[in-house]
Specification:
Blueprint: H1 2-59, E1 67-68, E2 71-72, H2 75-82, H3 98-105, E3 117-123, E4 128-134, H4 138-143, E5 145-147, E6 158-163, E7 185-189, E8 194-205, E9 220-228, E10 235-243
Parallel strand pairs: 4-5, 6-9
Antiparallel strand pairs: 1-2, 3-4, 3-7, 5-6, 7-8, 8-10, 9-10
Length: 245
Amino acid sequence: MIRRMLAILLILLGACLFLYPTINDRYESYQQHQILQQWQENMQAMDQLIGEETEQLRAVGVWNTTSVGGDVISSSDVNVMVSEPLVSESAKPPSVSDTAVKVMATAKPPSAKPKNMEGVLSIDKIDLKLPILSGATMDNMKVAVASIANTGKAGAIGNYAIAGHRNLTYGKNFNRLDEVVPGDLIEVDTGSQKFVYSVAEKLYVLPTDVWVLQSKGSNREITLITCDPMVDPTHRLIVKGKLVE
């Protein structure tokens, strides 16, 4: 009886060990999906908020009709005003009605980004769309790709470095990064802006070659980093891009 129970336990243990990689992979994919879904919901909420405020401003006769100091307020000017959660009395344009100012003053701030998220990385060439988390820690890179601390920021002067796992699952994280070639486009969506980079070069370097993280003068660059080869990696695959002006 004891031997039989022991045999069943060993079979169950073996099944768990066999299924663990698949279960873990699906859980990580689920986490990615949840982060991206929250991001998309926040962006939709922001668009809806701006749309509602625009309709309110149209209703009180401000949209494209109100003059301030002899100039007509454009759509972009109103967008700037409605994005401010509070408008002080001293900052009130002289010919904007009190009702319009009240609409602007009661504007709710947009929803916050998902925790620890900088934006979304997209590469159409390899059907990649991933959250970018802050800090290339093991926990972050289990779920998505992550920016490397003390490198640049999206769209800014410097080298925005992003690291990701070269998962064995086809298409997951940076699994297909080696398919990217010079001329392909990389997009970073921060929620407020979208930055497009053109791939300039693809390199294979040693893990000690940290020079790939350095910036070059006033260039606005992006660097994607993963392991190579996928099994027993000895090098790093580097994809570098430059901002499309």
